[in-house]
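Dear colleague,

Thank you for sharing your sequence with our group. We've completed the structure prediction you requested, and as agreed, I am returning the results in plain text so they can be pasted directly into your records. Please verify that the sequence below matches your submission; if there's any discrepancy, let me know and we will rerun it promptly.
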Amino acid sequence: MAKVSLIIPTFNRPHLLPRAVESAHGAGEGVEVIVVDDGSVDETARVCRTLPGIRYVRLDRNQGVAGARNVGLLESTGDYVAFLDDDDLRLPDSLARQVALLESAPEAGLVASAVLLADENCVPNGEVAAPRAKSGDVFWQVLELNLFLLPDSVLVRKSCFFEVGLFNRRLAGIDDWDMWARIAELRPFVIDERPVSIYRSPSPTSGQGSSHLARHLHAAFKHQARLLKLPRAQAAPEQRRRAVRAGLRRRVSDTLSWRAAEQLPRGHVHFATSNFLTALRISPLWAARPTHLRVFWKNSAAQLRRWRGRPEAPDAG
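Please find the predicted C-alpha cells below.
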C-alpha cells in the first residue's frame, strides 16, 4: 500500500499534465499518483497513456473538480492524501516532509504548508503565500477565511474523509474550504510555513476556475452561514458566531474592493466592476469606505484617460 496518494484532477489540459506528474513523482518516495480525467474531449487520454507510474481514471462525464477529487479519493490506497491541480507543481521531497510532520502529530487531521506564487507559465515570481497561524485548533480561523489553505499545499490523513465525508460537488470553487472547515471542527492542524508547491496565481484572463473571484467569495459568504450551524459552532456563544460572520463580511469586501482597484488600470474593467459590485452587495458601508472609493475612482479616471488617448495627469500625491 502506498503511504501517500496524490490526486490530480484534469480536464482538457493535456499539455500541462507531464510536468505536474513529474513533480508529483519527485515529491516523495513511493507516491501513488492518480490522474482523474474529468471527461476530457481532447488528447488527455492519449497523453496519459505515455506517462509512467500513474493510475489513470477516466470519467464518462464531467463532474467538476470536487467530483474528480472524490473519485480519486475512492481509488486511493494511501494512508495520506494530497491534491495537485494540473497547472501547478509539487516541490521535490515536499510530501516526505509533510508525512513526517503528520506522523509526529497523530491527532492532527492535516498539515498545511506554504506555496510559491507563480505567473501564468508557473514561473515563481518571488512571492510566498503561507498559513499564518500556530499549529493546533484553527477552526474559527478557517471559518473566517483567515487561514491560507490550498489543495496543493495540504497533506490530509485519509481517515479524516471517513469522519467528515467527501467534497461537496455543489460548492464549485469553495468545496476545498468547506472540507477544511469540516476537518478543523474535529481535528487540529499542523502548520508548516515552508513552501511545498508552486501555485499558478489566477488572473482575470488565465482561464482558471479560481479566477472567478467575485463568484467564489460571494458563494463563500453565503455558505459560511451553513458552516456556522456545525455542532461546534452552534455550541459556541452567539457573540462568537456574530464576530466570525462580521469578520468574513469585512474580509470578503476588502479583498474584492482592492482586487478591483488593482485590476482596473490593467484594463480588466469587467472583472473590476464585478468585484466591486459584489463587495457593495455583501457590505455596502465597508466597500464604500472613503479609502476604497478614492483608489477605485483614481484608477477609473486613469483608465478613462487611456481610452480617450490622453496622457495621464501627474499624481498630486
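Summary note from our side: Confidence is low (pLDDT under 50) at residues 311-317.

Kind regards,
the structure core
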